[in-house]
Known about the structure:
mainly alpha, 3 helices, elongated
Amino acid sequence: MAVEEPAPDPELPQDARIGSLDERLRHAQEQEALRDDKAQPDPVSRIGQQMFGHLIGAPFGGGVIGWGLDYWFGTGPLLFLLMLFFGFGVGVRNVIRISKADSGGGPGAQS
């Protein structure tokens, strides 16, 4: 025995239902675009934060490693200072590498 499908609602044409669905989809896509625009950081500030992180993080990391090695070997501040300056050099090298890198064709790139 075949099951009969319910008849479509005669008061609501099918085009109105599709139009309503299209409208809700368009509204959802607009909301998603607004949310994505807020999540995108400025490329210039991103590069600045990255450089700041290298200039602070590399000497700090070198200093912590040097302090740990000094504590372990009992060499006083010798390895601490050596690794601190080494970390500073690595940070400066990374900043120079970032500044020379091509920014690509992303937003904010000048032609």
